[in-house]
Amino acid sequence: MVTQLDAIDRKILAELQADASQSLDEIAKKVGASKTPVWNRIRKLRDSGLIKSQTVILDPDKLGLEACFFVLVRTSEHEKDWQDRFLTALLEREEVLEAHRLAGDIDYILKVRVKNAKAYDDFYQALISEVKIFNMTALLSMEEIKSTLRLPV
């Protein structure tokens, strides 16, 4: 269900996406409203589930996680038991930042962040030891051109 938003809601969401650590006073000033109504709107947006959570974004390079791989997974297994084991394996691995089930020739795409190629191989070996996979292709990102969690509001 789509949440109905007015212009002030959209401005609030844009400000929160830009920097959720801003004070309520700063946000209110930027959106042209007073503090209490802005707080009530934010609370309403949280209660509706539109705002799922607040977090911080870390710099992966400064954590030594310099290698980003996009992993294409093809499977010959489509039974529920296999899917459950595969999804459990993905959810347990902190290296997997994103996982998507796809339409088309590739069944899944994963975004995996690790220190280096050896760390990726460790991830790969652990995954295939738990779940039978028909084919995995790893694509190393040479340069991150754009990465954002901001949604257009």
UniProtKB/TrEMBL annotation:
A Pfam family that the UniProt record links to this protein: AsnC_trans_reg
Domain HTH asnC-type: 5-66
Gene3D superfamilies assigned to the protein according to its UniProt record, in alphabetical order: 3.30.70.920, Winged helix-like DNA-binding domain superfamily/Winged helix DNA-binding domain
Keywords tagged on the record: DNA-binding, Transcription, Transcription regulation
UniProt cross-references to PROSITE patterns, sorted A to Z: HTH_ASNC_2
Matches recorded under InterPro entries: ArsR-like_HTH (IPR011991), AsnC-type_HTH_dom (IPR000485), Dimeric_a/b-barrel (IPR011008), Tscrpt_reg_AsnC-like (IPR019888), Tscrpt_reg_AsnC/Lrp_C (IPR019887), WH-like_DNA-bd_sf (IPR036388), WH_DNA-bd_sf (IPR036390)
Protein name: ArsR family transcriptional regulator
Annotated organism of origin: Amylibacter marinus
